[in-house]
Design a protein that fits this description.
403 residues; alpha/beta; D-Maltodextrin-Binding Protein, domain 2; eight-stranded mixed beta sheet; five-stranded mixed beta sheet; 13 helices
């Protein structure tokens, strides 16, 4: 059963030691979506005491196996990662770029991995609002773009969060009205992003600056940027009130398929290796220190969901559209979901080698005052222990933290 409630700010939760048995499973009913950049919808689910399934029971080939600390012999099973919380409050977006989160919540994989820990979820429109919830004590962990994570880490002098895994690469584009053919044609136009300081917002501001077009944060008004809810952008684009948007999937594809937009820039073409981090998994620093066992179980659920996506992408696409229908009220059109799903690359690798450039982009875009010290922003130790236990290669922190 899921119930909506307001954020429980700074709620105290006692620690538990990870149990050595297979843990309870349950299917979590899907979350509702927000209709503003600062709002969210929250649901709470309690584990079923009668089930004995483990995360491996629902994972595809290559699954990371049962919850950390169990004695079933699966990946991570013999490792004791430490204390657990009674509740994990998790944030994410109702976007394709958060595919592992959307599916992991909707099909119960995350709750199954968490066992006796109750999973509470909140759906956000953009990263800055989710960061506000994290730093305000309303959520403990979240799936989010790299730039809001960098901004929060820098503004808190490294105290607010740690990046513990990747989630998605690619899946963002600048889509525009049909009469816009070059970047110079953007002069005098209004282009939308999900929220000021978010990953797509920074990408747009940096791209315009590179092409000698200034905006409010870079000292000019050549192009107006409207930071707003993605659904609002779709409506305003149809009405001609905005002429494009730098948007994550499925919104870029929705503007193309449903509203006649065209792709001017696919963001992956701006990166030397053709890929960039779109979504990361972050955890409050204090929560990670207090409840590493809960973080380990969340990571196992994340890895299990990624395994299922990789094992059967076609099925994952169908399941994802069903889950997004629960968030948005209706499924995406076939042309939208197929185009959008082809643009994303689910991955646990945070692509840390891109971090320096992302920080520099924030400064150039005017959302950061200076390139921050990001030397400890990653803590990939638990992730890498789970990967190695499953016979996979560990991922790199790129010199920006522990691995």
């Amino acid at each position: 059963m899921s119930t909506a409630r307001r954020f429980p700010f700074f709620a105290a939760r006692p620690a538990r030691v990870i149990a050595g048995t297979a843990l309870a499973a349950l299917v979590l009913s899907a979350c509702g979506g927000s209709d503003s950049g600062s709002g969210s919808s929250t649901t709470s689910t309690s584990p079923s005491p009668s089930s004995s399934a483990s995360p491996a029971s629902s994972a595809g080939s290559g699954s990371t196996g049962t919850a950390a600390g169990s004695d079933t012999g699966a990946a991570g099973a013999t490792q004791d990662f430490g204390a657990e919380a009674d509740t994990l409050r998790l944030g994410y977006f109702g976007n394709l770029t958060h595919a592992a989160a959307v599916l992991g919540v909707a099909d119960g994989t995350f709750q199954e991995a968490l066992g006796d820990t109750t999973l509470e979820t909140s759906v956000f429109n953009a990263g800055p609002a989710e960061i506000e919830a994290l730093t305000g004590g309303a959520i403990d962990a979240g799936f989010i773009g790299p730039n809001p994570a960098i901004n929060s880490y820098a503004k808190s002098s490294g105290d607010s969060l740690r990046i513990v895994a990747g989630a998605t690469a690619n899946g963002a584009a600048l889509v525009v009205a049909p009469d816009i053919n070059t970047v110079e044609d953007l002069r005098g136009k209004t282009i939308a992003t999900p929220q000021l300081g978010g990953t797509q917002d920074v990408a747009l501001r940096k791209y315009l600056l590179d092409n000698n077009l200034l905006v409010d944060t870079t000292g000019g008004d050549d192009v107006s940027i409207a930071s707003q809810d993605n659904a609002t952008t779709l409506d305003l684009f149809k009405n001609g009130d905005v002429q494009g948007g730098w948007l994550p999937e499925p919104w870029a594809s929705r503007l193309i398929v449903e509203a006649g937009a065209k792709e001017l820039v696919n963001e992956k073409t701006l990166w030397d290796d053709g890929q960039f981090p779109t979504t990361l998994l972050i955890v409050s620093r204090t929560f990670l220190e207090q409840y590493p066992g809960t973080v380990a179980k969340l990571l196992q659920g994340h890895l299990a969901e990624l395994d299922k996506i990789e094992a059967d992408p076609a099925d994952a696409q169908t399941r994802l559209n069903d889950a997004l229908a629960e968030v948005a009220g209706k499924p995406l059109a076939d042309g939208v979901i197929s185009r959008a799903f082809a643009e994303i690359t689910p991955t646990y690798d945070p692509l840390a080698n891109h971090l320096t450039e992302l920080g520099e982009d924030g400064v150039k875009a005017g959302t950061l005052k200076e390139v921050p010290d990001l030397s400890q922003i990653y803590d990939l130790r638990i992730l890498n222990q789970l990967l190695v236990a499953d016979g996979k290669k560990p991922v790199s922190a790129g010199g920006f933290g522990q691995e």
